[in-house]
Amino acid sequence: MSVCPCGGLPAGTPFEQCCGPAVRHERWPVTAEALMRSRYTAFATGDDDHLFRTWHPENRPADTASDPRVEWTGLTIVRTEAGGEDDAAGTVEFEANYRGPDGPGVLRENSRFAKRAGRWFYAAPVEDA
Fold first, then answer.
1. Which of 43, 44, 78, 121 shows a CA-CA span of 20 to 30 A to 64?
2. HEC secondary structure over the chain
3. Partner residues linked to 90 by β-bridges
4. pLDDT digit string (tens) for 2-35?
5. Half-sphere exposure of 92 (CA within 13 A, CB side)
6. pLDDT of residue 124
7. 41 inside domain
8. What total number of domains does the chain contain?
9. 11 lies in a domain?
10. Are 91 and 110 in contact (CB under 8 A)?
11. What is the Cα–Cα distance from 123 to 77, expressed in whole angstroms?
12. Could you tell me if residue 27 is inside a domain?
């Protein structure tokens, strides 16, 4: 079994026990960080359906498709704030390494997550004050 593209939660967990069930619609992530990891995995595996389903409907763009020219090569969770099973909102700051048409890069974002009908959704990047 290979390690999940997100790096595993806990570290080293195989895809089948980590993000696999979420991406296959078998289990909804129970924390904001778990949802963030499953979304990263969806980008890494090209699972656009999971990206669409996990984007908050109030902020979802018309096109949620991932860019097939981008290879996602690693995820680092910098910090989380709230976003636990009993929370209604939370943030996850992360760095996602990639290789694209213009070479390697790092996407850095502090993302807002919100619960709707008991499920976590990606809302939007946190705006700097």
1. 78
2. CCECCCCCCCCCCECCCCCHHHHCCCCCCCCHHHHHHHHHHHHHHCCHHHHHHHECCCCCCCCCCCCCCCEEEEEEEEEEEECCCCCCEEEEEEEEEEEECCEEEEEEEEEEEEEECCEEEEEEECCCC
3. 82, 113
4. 999 999 999 999 999 999 999 999 999 999 999 9
5. 25
6. 94
7. yes
8. 1
9. no
10. yes
11. 17
12. yes
Q: And the tokens for 45?
A: 């595996």
pLDDT at 128: 64
Predicted model pTM = 0.94
Long-range pairs, 46-50, Cβ under 8 A, ≥24 = 47/23, 50/22, 50/23, 50/25
Amino acid at 27: R
* Model pLDDT for residues 44-101, shown as the tens digit of each residue: 999 999 999 999 999 999 999 999 999 999 999 999 999 999 999 999 999 999 999 9
CATH number of the domain residue 89 falls in = 3.10.450.50
Q: What integer pLDDT is reported at residue 127 of this predicted model? A: 81
